[in-house]
């Protein structure tokens, strides 16, 4: 009877290791997802700042008397 109990414990031990590995992998993938979402959020902040600078440039060039299309062209780096 002790041999049967030992065999059952060994079978459960293998499953326990597999479940532990699965849990670690799940936790790691959650961390990677959280880091990726944070990076995306930070990139939106810099994109918003760039858009504000562009809009200010267009308004300033328009105030000097140019049309909207030529102001946009100028702020995009055109002549």
Offer a few descriptive terms.
rod-shaped, 79 residues, mainly alpha, single chain
Summarize the amount of helix as a percent range.
Answer: over 70%
Q: What's the total helix number?
A: 2
Helices and strands, in N-to-C order? Answer: HH
Q: Please state roughly what percent of the residues sit in beta strands, choosing from under 5%, 5-15%, 15-25%, 25-35%, 35-45% or over 45%.
A: under 5%
End-to-end C-alpha gap: 91 Å
Q: What count of domains describes the coordinates? A: 1
Description:
The protein is mainly α and 79 residues long. It has one domain. It has helices at residues 2-63, 68-75. Helix 1 crosses helix 2 (68-75). The N and C termini lie far apart (91 Å).
State the gist of this model:
The chain has 79 residues and is an all-alpha fold.
Indicate the topology.
Blueprint: H1 2-63, H2 68-75
